[in-house]
Amino acid sequence: MRLSTKLSGLWLAACAIAATSDKAVTNEDGIRSIPLRTHTLNSPYLDSDMQSRWFDFGGNTIIRADQYIRLTSDRPSQEGWLFSRVPLTATNWEIEVEFKIHGSGNLHGDGFAMWLTKQRATAGPVFGSADQFEGLGIFFDTYKNNRPGTVFPYVMAMVGDGVKSYDKSNDGKSDEFMGCSARGIRGASVPTKAKLTYFQDKSLKLELQYKAEDQWELCFSTEEPPTIPSVAYLGFSAETGELSDNHDIISVNTKNLYDTKNRPDPSTQKPGSGSGRQRGKGRPDKKKSGSWTWFFFKILMFVVVAGGGYVGFTAWRTQQRRANRF
């Protein structure tokens, strides 16, 4: 089902400013999260006009309001997508997606993708979306083309520069930023979820739930995350070829993240990791603490040396006086 809108970008931007919820939660690590409605999607998905205020849908996507958004059905040669209408401009965020990959055949394919890219709402050959994208793509690949030694389904991240093409014939091996095997993610007996967490210039982490509820498996994590475009749209897409599957999006929940502890930026504590930033005041500064320790150590050494010199000088004068008596 292709849904369109005549709402202007200005109106959407104005609504986006007012669309953050005040239901903030701070966890034990001091990370405060605020739900972001502009990039959140839950049943029934559509409003009273049978449209979505914040997302566009296209291709072979169908919507069952009480259950799922189906990007592709279990039929050959399908492709479908959904993309946010406004960009995700938050500096730090968490996106949790519940999805379901399932079908009736013993052979199945091809998979679906999660996008944070400058481009939006364009069908193409990369899991149903456009190639030569600029931004981040996360691919949930269920069909192995040519990648010896890799267990499928395989989940991988690719950073696109707007020029580089996805190497589909080799399952993106040469383009991989990070990834992991996720056997059991298709047709799992528990709700399957992906949680992508990003702190600008600090970290990127992908966790998966497919073995047991509330049990998150780390897929990948890095303290040197790629640069995501400042104007990036959140999207999902899927495709089938000769082989097929149902690729369903059940829910999308996005949150702005804030670090209330004002931790020191790791890039200021190790050479070559990026530009320095002002350290936070809410936590002791290790480097500054070390400088004070060295300062007091030098004072102590001065006292010891001066004291030793004074004792030596006193002993020498005493010896000279005794010698003069004779």
Structural class: alpha+beta
Average pLDDT: 82
CATH class of the largest domain: Mainly Beta
How much of the residues is beta strand, in percent? Answer: 25-35%
Largest sheet: 9 strands, antiparallel
Output the radius of gyration: 29 Å
Number of helical regions: 2
Instruction: Tell me the distance between the termini.
Output: 117 Å
CATH level-two architecture of the largest domain: Sandwich
Query: What percentage of residues falls in helices of 4 or more residues?
Result: 10-25%
Description:
This protein is of the alpha+beta class and 326 residues long. The protein has two domains: 9-268, Jelly Rolls; 295-326. The chain has two helices and 17 strands. The protein has helices at residues 9-17, 286-325; strands at residues 25-26, 31-35, 55-59, 62-64, 68-72, 79-84, 92-102, 111-117, 123-126, 134-141, 154-161, 176-181, 192-199, 203-209, 217-222, 233-239, 246-259. The strands form two sheets. Strands 1, 2, 4, 5, 7, 13, 14, 15 and 17 form a nine-stranded antiparallel sheet that branches. Strands 3-6-16-8-10-11-12 form a seven-stranded antiparallel sheet, with no helix packed on it. Strand 13 (192-199) and strand 14 form a beta hairpin. The chain is globular, with a radius of gyration of 29 Å. Residues 1-21, 270-298 and 322-326 have low confidence and may be disordered. GO terms for molecular function: D-mannose binding. InterPro entries: ConA-like_dom_sf, Intracellular_Lectin-GPT, Lectin_leg. Residues 255-288 are annotated as: Disordered. This is L-type lectin domain-containing. Residues 33-257 form the L-type lectin-like domain.
